[in-house]
């Protein structure tokens, strides 16, 4: 479901690969066609404003599409992809990937890319990322970890903006709301869900509880 209404993503297996179509729900006209890899780790994501979508078209390739113009904006190579998120207006894509098949360090990389060119903006090595989401209307990204750490990142900067560990279990989800839980000032709040059911609410800009 998008801001413009409901859309349907269908996928067909073909000898030459996996073909997918994105079109309005209930309509017969095709909105867009693309290759889509059926992969359990990650296959596609949409920007919150519905302007942009990223699809994993092969084990090595990520395609980014302009949904309004029905055209591909860029294609880039990313092996070992585990997660991806687009920012609010679809201009930046954050990806989490394993470093290499032969790397036994357990490290992963968090990378930011310009979706117009596919060029890498910045890349950070981390031990793990279990959840991540861009802050609505901002370029900053929050990530969660197995040990409960919450970190804020900004594309183009390799140093963390802020870091908190309010709880010590695995982070399973990060969501945002204008009022948060119990808030009434209309400010954006981040709600972090932990594996044991605890929810921690903070200001995503500062990390303040």
Fill in the keyword field for this structure:
209 residues, mainly beta, 4-stranded antiparallel beta sheet
Give a written overview of the molecule.
By secondary structure, the chain is mainly beta. It has strands spanning 7-14, 17-24, 32-35, 44-46, 52-56, 61-66, 71-77, 81-86, 92-98, 108-114, 120-126, 131-134, 141-144, 150-153, 162-164, 171-177, 189-194, 199-202. It has a four-stranded antiparallel sheet with strand order 4-5-6-7, with no helix packed on it. The mean pLDDT is 83.
What is shown here, in short?
It contains no helices and 18 strands.
- Main sheet strand line-up: 4-5-6-7
What is the CA–CA distance across the termini? 31 Å
- Quaternary assembly: single chain
| Proportion of strand residues | over 45%
Using only CA atoms, what is the Rg?
18 Å
Biggest sheet: strands, sense, closure?
4 strands, antiparallel
Rough outline = globular
Q: Low-confidence segments, ≥5 residues, pLDDT <50?
A: none
Helicity level, as a percent range? Answer: under 10%
Total strand segments: 18
Query: In sequence order, what are the helices and strands, one letter per element?
Result: EEEEEEEEEEEEEEEEEE
Kindly name the structural category. mainly beta
Number of helices: 0
Overall mean pLDDT: 83
